[in-house]
Amino acid sequence: MVPTPPLSVHFVNNALATAAGLVDEDSDAARDVLAQLGAFLTYRLRGARTVSVADEIDHVGVYLALEQARFPGRVEAELPAPATVPAGTTTPGAVQAPVSEAVARSLQRGRGPVRVAVRVAAAGDAVEARLAAPGARAERVRIALAAPAPEAA
Amino acid sequence: MDGGLAILAVDDEPRALADVKRLLETSASVDRVATATSAKEALVFLSGGRYDALFLDVAMPEIEGMALARLLRRFSDPPAVVFLTGHPDAAVEAFEVQALDFLIKPVTRERLESALNRVERHTHGEGTPPPRANAGAEPRPGAATAGPEVVAVDNPKGGGKRLVRLDTVAFAQANGDYARIVCDDGRYLLRMPLTQLEREWAGAGFVRVHRAYLVNLGHAVELRAQLNGTAVLVMRTGTEIPVARRHVASLRRRLHA
Asked: Which residues in chain A touch residue B18, judged by CB atoms under 8 angstroms apart?
């Protein structure tokens, strides 16, 4: 099984600061950020366990929504279509953490928008995150999943 | 300066920047707030006007906050630097670049005001020292009552040192040649006898109440007399600290109890 990656304190603090910054300007948006952060933390802090790859992809979606709130207009996200997600299991954060590291790298390189496309590899044993930003070399990160569940006979 | 402080806040995250801007603008200590979303933009502001302090994020594109702080040290009369970041691990580096304070986002108003107070004292030339790590190796000769505001303790997770703000420390307990430090976020060991801590932390509100306990009175909520002439000091976490008979009277005087 893929080991559980540590939670990024930096990310959590900055998401909280985003919510704080929205309180006066748009309290509904602030509430949404807090609700998303709550979902993010609940998923990651429930302890060591296996999760479905579909749940982990949903978790990546929550993470990317929080990045979109932190950096308005800078993060474009594309997640795999549900039908393409394999039926295997993985560890909480196994996909989200490396995607997060790659997004942070891209955001640090410049001030323009970053496009993040997360796709399931053809063999179904990995997820690929492709990051593209204007003026920067595209980055592709391959994230191995645990072995997919055997197909039903 | 015309009474209030002029502050430049720098952060590439617009909403976090809006948050600190709002807090700064509503502070009685602050006269003027400008904001920049990058280090380059901050340099443009600095070239066009005088600022008492920068509230600076660490992780930013192109030029990071730490690099900007290093660059500012080359100025003949640099503004004070207060880091405001989501990166708690950047504290040691912040002290190396002689930052005046180090705040974790999102910051409480109380903590922000404390940083502004520090900036005011620095700006008025009162010689406020930057918060610094106290590794506990050597006692400072003639240690003043002001004492350190941050202490470096052994980090039980992964070794190294962890920086702990003294105002988060509830009490220290003698533990052989070490002191066990109990603070808001955990317990740590510090290689220093309690007598030395008593001397160095006196200015930060710490009082010896027992041969084994040095207490931060800012964390105490109740003093309970005992029938045998001793007392118990109840901390806000509910922890009860024994007060030795010989310390009861002086503690009562100090607390006007």
From this structure: 21-22, 24-25
